[in-house]
Write a structure and sequence with these properties.
The protein is built from 20 helices and 30 strands. The chain is an alpha/beta fold. The chain binds adenosine-5'-triphosphate and magnesium ion.
């Protein structure tokens, strides 16, 4: 199979500011390169050094046992994630440091210090135990973005039960399938949560799901919205009633390093959700380490990752990574545009947020809403920005840099996946010169490469498969209950290495540019083109806020490019604009990438985590019925509207 042709010509470079570098954990590119090279010579020693920064009840015997494709990290060691995120901070002044700074969508505010959080977690651990939860059980958490969600996670981790968090936007059907797949014994939920001013009735969804989940014996219900809900006698219990009687003394269980920490179902941009299993010691080592280095975390920082805890980003970079570091973490329950599009900027100003980590889909929405909203707020506390989830178009990067970062904040574009558990490719902000649209370089300990189908590295600037050639501590251990699928899905496509679906190229400096998912590659006249480069060319036009491109069958060229384009506020769709955009793409990246067709649309079909679902657009562009799973689609009406616009 041919490699992927790269057409993007992004040349801007932003060097770290001297002042930033001087205070950073890693201070120069030379320093990074030295650490990186040493780490690849002896990855086990490198990771063992990072693991030692955590608290272990019992040291490990071997850092790694690798029997392809199964890794065990820190074998024989005993550890507890909850202990590392809480108890460890109680012996110093940190016990009175803010751990969670929470704001509800309705304006409520709560701050929990490490001591407060520890107390709540201990009590809930006792609640879980009293309800019969045992080490090794699975607990389903279906909650709004409230502190109690973090409490429940850490309580599970404390007693050695694996949590399976289901994003609060999922339907009863999705809950049912995930509960049954993991055979959960207990569900923790809430009466409801707030989203864009409306109450989302979570308990009703749970009730519906539990009609077909034989393993669930107990339900704990947090009172959040005070809606009238159904409580089933003997099965359903109020959180506050159980907590009021629970003791605040609970010893964290010393667990095997490979003890399951959680199961998380991937968002499913490509199809049926998979239960990704993460374990304890390696996962915590790598999430703690990457939080510190990638976000250049300092003791006094106020850190805000806007992800919902229902996604892996929330697990690794709202809960485990930051709390293991004793950070102050901002949590906001609701929508970015409630009551108006300045909500995020008000939160940054109010809590003097220093580190802000969000997703390209949010950034594109900010761009669409216009820069007047952030302009009204003082964002000077920010010193570092981050992005994750999709390739970021260089022009969106520039907007983020200029409007939110005031041209002073480095942006870390972090590439990773639910399966990788932690960030694998990212700039280190004091060391790495930034290139808009590139995730830059692999982190120490990570052997990332771009290869062809045979596993051979492709030359600089040609596209190929993004792979990881050696095991890393936070990697998934299996797909829950399906080891064969684990091997087939991740370790079989390219011989001997991990491949989870992304195409990329490395430039002459070794920088990684993710070109989109391999499944989305478009084949035009013998060339294979990645989606992100063409989309970036469209977004670089001043009228465009967001774009998605897909291939549709074409008799002459094999496939032709169809582009779905959302305009910035204030611009009007027209035939002239279509021509203009087509010429713009030709001018930016060449005639091979010129879209055969452009369609304007207000919204694109996205997963509930905000990622564009191109496979659905493919069906629409080629006039087919939608095939495959759409349960992870955020808004079903989008499909109908897109089909209508076509008529
Ligand atoms: P599924 O695997 O079920 O289809 P998903 O891949 O969207 O869902 P995640 O694990 O949340 O689920 O997302 C990981 C993917 O997101 C990566 O494989 C990549 O395609 C994309 N991604 C994440 N971060 C970046 C980034 N910084 N640059 C480019 N792409 C990114
Ligand atoms: Mg994926």
């Amino acid at each position: 199979m041919a490699d992927i042709t790269s057409v993007l010509k992004e040349k801007r470079v932003f060097k770290p500011h001297k002042e930033f570098s001087r205070n950073a954990h890693v201070k120069s590119l030379t320093e990074y390169k030295k650490i990186y090279q040493a780490s690849l010579k002896n990855p086990e020693a490198f990771w063992a050094g990072k693991a030692k920064e955590l608290h272990w009840f019992k040291p490990w015997k071997k850092p790694l046992v690798w029997e392809f494709p199964n890794a065990k990290w820190f074998v024989g060691g005993k550890i507890n994630a909850s202990y590392n995120c809480l108890d460890r901070h109680l012996s110093s002044w940190r016990r009175n440091k803010a751990a969670l700074i929470w704001e509800g969508e309705n304006g409520e505010e709560r701050v929990l210090t490490y001591q407060d959080l520890h107390r709540e977690v201990c009590r809930f651990a006792n609640v879980l135990k009293a309800l019969g939860t045992m080490k090794g059980d699975r607990v389903c958490l279906y909650m709004p973005l409230v502190p109690e969600l973090a409490v429940a996670m850490l309580a599970c981790a404390r007693i050695g039960a694996a949590h399976s968090v289901i994003f609060g936007g999922f339907s009863s059907q999705a809950i049912r399938d995930r509960i049954n797949d993991a055979r959960c014994k207990i569900v923790v939920t809430a009466d409801g949560g707030y989203r864009r001013g409306a109450v989302i009735n979570l308990k009703n969804n749970v009730d519906e799901a539990l009609k077909e989940t034989p393993t669930v014996k107990q339900v704990v219900v947090l009172q959040r919205t005070k809606e009238v809900i159904h409580m089933q006698l003997g099965r359903d219990h109020w959180w506050h009633a159980l907590m009021s009687e629970a003791s605040a003394v609970n010893e964290a269980e010393p667990l095997d390093s490979e003890h399951p920490l959680y199961i998380l179902y991937t968002s499913g941009s490509t199809g049926k959700p998979k239960g990704v299993l993460h374990t304890t010691g390696g996962y915590l080592t790598q999430t703690a380490f990457t939080t510190r280095w990638v976000f250049d975390l300092k003791e006094e920082d106020v850190y805000w990752c806007t992800a919902d805890i229902g996604w892996v980003t929330g697990h690794s970079y709202v809960v485990y990574g930051p709390l293991a570091n004793g950070a102050s973490v901002v949590m906001y329950e609701g929508a970015p545009n409630w009551p108006d599009p300045s909500r995020f900027w008000r939160i940054i100003e109010k809590y003097r947020v220093n580190i802000f980590y969000t997703a390209p889909t949010a950034i594109r929405a900010f761009i669409k809403w216009g820069e007047d909203w952030p302009r009204k707020h003082n964002l000077e506390s920010l010193r570092l920005l981050g992005t994750v989830g999709e390739p970021i178009n260089p022009e969106a990067w520039m907007w983020y840099h200029r409007v939110i970062g005031g041209k002073r904040c480095p942006i870390v574009d972090t590439w990773w996946q639910t399966e990788t558990g932690a960030i694998l490719i990212s700039a280190l902000p004091g060391a790495t010169p930034l290139k808009p649209g590139s995730a830059t370089l692999p982190l120490p300990g990570i052997d990332a490469a771009v290869v062809n189908k045979e596993g051979k590295e492709v030359p600089a600037n040609s596209g190929g498969y993004l792979v990881i050639r050696r095991p890393w501590p936070a990697m998934l251990r299996t797909i829950y209950g399906d080891p064969a699928r684990y091997k087939k899905q991740y370790w079989s496509e390219i011989p001997g290495v991990y491949f989870a679906g992304d195409g990329a190229r490395r430039d002459e400096d070794g920088y990684f540019w993710v070109m989109g998912r391999i499944d989305d590659v478009i084949k035009v006249s013998g060339h294979r083109l990645g989606t992100s480069e063409i989309e970036s060319a469209l977004v670089s036009h001043e009228t465009v806020a967001e774009a998605a491109v897909v291939g549709r069958p074409d008799e002459i060229t094999g496939e032709a490019i169809a582009a779905f384009v959302t305009l910035e506020n204030g611009h009007v769709p027209s035939e002239d604009l279509k021509d203009l955009l087509r010429s713009h793409v030709t001018k930016e990246i060449g005639s091979i990438a010129r879209p055969a067709e452009i369609r304007f649309t207000d919204t694109l079909p996205k997963t509930r985590s905000g990622k564009i679902m191109r496979r659905l657009l493919r069906d629409i562009a080629s006039g087919r019925e939608t095939l495959g799973d759409t349960t992870t689609l955020e808004d079903f009406s989008v499909l109908a509207r897109l089909r209508k616009e076509e008529e």
